[in-house]
Write a structure and sequence with these properties.
A 5-stranded mixed beta sheet has the order 2-4-5-7-6, covered by helices on one side. A two-stranded antiparallel ribbon has the order 1-3. The longest helix has about 55 residues. Strand 4 and strand 5 form a beta hairpin. It is built from 12 helices and 7 strands. By secondary structure, it is of the alpha+beta class. Helix 4 packs antiparallel against helix 7, helix 8 runs antiparallel to helix 9 and helix 9 packs across helix 10. The chain has 2 domains: about 180 residues, no CATH class; about 180 residues, Heat Shock Protein 90 (2-Layer Sandwich), CATH 3.30.565. The two termini are about 40 Å apart.
Length: about 375
């Protein structure tokens, strides 16, 4: 029984909507279909409520299924108008179909002493008859159009109530999901920043940086000063990104040049960075530290020697995406060394997923590692 309920009402939203609509629409429809006999004895009341309840439940499940299909087609809050239009059109068709079925069924079956006829509906509801002859020919039974018009008016009201309640629940769910995504994005961003800071401030990195600086101070003081300036820029940028979901590509590239300066001082001729970005895309945006993670990933997992240099390329495609690639010369696995967990790549993918954007496309091997990154033209608040 529980499985059947979940199959008919798969979401909490649908169960709450049914609980709200069913208690008043079922007895009202039963009364309109049966008339005064519905209230004259318990057998008509209980039997009519049960039958109409089953029919109404089937209709509700059909309406809810249509709503779910439309919602999957237009899931975003910015598509609310399209969702409401398509939902209203589909519900109008479904309502007409089920109403015609109810009237024909009760008129032909005479269930619970129903008196669906012109005279009965005039006495029970005071509706002025119209188009009786036409409807009799269409339905094949003496079912009055006034009944149809009145019942359809009730169904249209129920339809609008259904759409309104559905949108209220759905919008609330979307808002909650949006808030949760923002918190998750914030956590992912902070984790990425923490990972980057840990990498850069680790004793190993500091030792290599200070060792490079020490050798420069004695032999090339001007280069040592430049090294300190670039190092300051790197740490300044790392601290500033704590308040951003997105950063302009031009700013990220400026940071990468500073970061590359530090790496180049250490690796010399073993490392080369080539940037060929179309100026038209410099104002486009991407999650901060994305390029840093990719450059760091390339340096971490590849052999870097003057005789076997690592080439890193950053460019843009004609379709407005950022392409980052490097030649593969993977380091040999050493006993006791833990394999990479690919936290950096996972972090980048999670950011794009949380921003409801296409995920980066990764190509690994055989000779090159490539990643294609979508660029943003809007603020994250507008996405």
């Amino acid at each position: 029984m529980k499985e059947l309920i979940h199959r008919c009402f798969p979401t909490a939203r649908s169960r709450w909507m049914y609980a709200f609509i069913a208690p008043w629409i079922i007895p009202l429809m039963a009364y309109l279909l049966i008339g005064r006999p519905y209230l004259q004895n318990w057998s008509n009341f209980l039997g009519g409520t049960l039958v109409v309840g089953i029919l109404s439940t089937v209709a509700f499940v059909a309406h809810n299924y249509a709503a779910d299909v439309i919602t999957r087609r237009y899931p975003h809050l910015r598509q609310t108008v399209k969702r409401i239009i398509w939902m209203t059109l589909s519900f109008t068709f479904l309502t007409a179909f089920f109403l015609y079925f109810y009237l024909t069924l009760f008129a032909l079956g005479g269930f619970f002493h129903t008196e669906i006829s012109l005279e009965a509906m005039q006495a029970n509801h005071g509706i002025i008859p119209t188009w009786n002859h036409l409807f009799k020919r269409l339905a094949g039974a003496d079912v009055t159009p006034p009944t149809l018009v009145f019942l359809y008016a009730v169904d249209v009201f129920s339809l609008l109530a259904f759409v309104f309640i559905y949108e209220v629940f759905y919008s609330l769910e979307q808002w909650q999901a949006s808030q949760k995504n923002k918190e998750t994005l914030k956590k992912a961003r902070l984790q990425g920043q923490l990972q980057s800071l840990r990498s850069q401030i680790s004793p190993h990195f500091l030792f290599n940086s200070l060792n490079s600086l020490s050798s420069l101070i004695a032999d090339e003081p001007q280069k040592a000063e430049d090294f300190v300036n670039e190092m300051a820029k790197v740490y300044r940028y790392l601290l500033q990104t704590s308040e951003r979901e997105l950063t302009p590509l031009s700013v990220e590239l400026a940071f990468i040049h500073s970061y590359y300066h530090l790496l180049k001082t250490r690796y010399g001729a073993g490392l080369h960075l080539d940037v060929a970005v179309d100026p038209a895309y410099l104002k486009y945006q991407l999650p901060p530290l994305t390029l840093q993670m990719l450059v760091e990933n390339a340096v971490k997992h590849n052999v870097i020697l003057a005789t076997k240099p690592l080439h890193i390329h950053i460019g843009t495609t004609t379709t407005g995406e950022l392409l980052v690639s490097n030649n593969l010369q993977t380091k040999a696995k050493r006993p006791g060394v833990v394999e990479s967990t690919k936290v950096g790549l996972s972090n980048i993918t999670a950011r794009y997923r949380l921003l409801d954007q296409p995920e980066p496309q990764i190509t690994n091997g055989p000779d090159h590692f490539k990643i294609l990154l979508p660029l943003f033209t809007e603020n994250v608040s507008d996405i």
